[in-house]
Every structure is written in structure tokens, then in C-alpha cells.
Amino acid sequence: MKEIKAVIRPNKLAALREALVALPDFPGMTVTKVEGCSAPSRHIRQNSIKEELTDFSPKVRIEIVAPDEAAETLYEAICKVGQTGHYGDGLVWVTDIEKATFIFKTTPAAPG
Question: Pairing between strand 57-66 and 2-8?
Fold first, then answer.
């Protein structure tokens, strides 16, 4: 299994949800409101230290746990829908999940 995480602009969330729900292997997602900033070296204009320390913009964090075979399609959809071509569009990454289960399923009882 894979975990796909993304940080995107909030105005892209509705379009992303629509694109992901249309995929046959979409397992659902968790969405969290977050704030973030780019590395100072990525800014075109140099800001003061005070501006750099307080220049956080609202973002949305998406988390999806999916089967290996669905991960690349989900990753590509997030990258495509999330981009605007401007700095600060976000970040998408994929990590391996050793073990996961949906908690509504019956899980083995603990010994004892």
C-alpha cells in the first residue's frame, strides 16, 4: 500500500475532489486545513526577515491510503489538477505503508 500526501491551494480542492472521485480506484481521502510558505530562495522578490517569518498562506493537506496499483494514477491526478503554474502551488509525495486496515472491517482480536 501507498500513502499519497499533497499540500495544495484551497481553491483547487473542489476540482481535485471531482477528479479523484471519478477514478475507479479512489479509496477516499482526509483533508486538513494547513498553512505554509515556500523556501526564501524560491521567492522572486527578496522579503525582509519579518515578512519571511509571517508570510504563511492557507493550504489544504490531502492524505490518501491506496493500493500500490492505484497510487500512480492518484499521484498524477493530484499533480495535474493542483497546478496553476505559480510558486506556492504545493507539493505531492508518496510513501510506502507497511500495514493498514479500514477500522470498519473486523480485525483480529488481541490475544488474551
Answer: antiparallel
Which domains are present in the chain? 15-96 (3.30.70.120)
Residue written as grid cell 525582509:
48
- Distance (Å) of CA 73 to CA 7, 9, 96: 17, 20, 16
Whole-model pTM over 0.85: no
Give me the sheet containing 30-36, strands edge to edge. 30-36, 57-66, 2-8, 90-96
d(CA 86, CA 62): 20
Q: What is the pLDDT of residues 1-42, one digit of tens each?
A: 999 999 999 999 999 999 999 999 899 999 999 998 776 555
> Cα–Cα distance between 83 and 15 in angstroms, integer?
11
CA angle 9, 10, 15 (to 5 degrees): 95
- Report the C-alpha gap between 94 and 17 in whole angstroms: 18
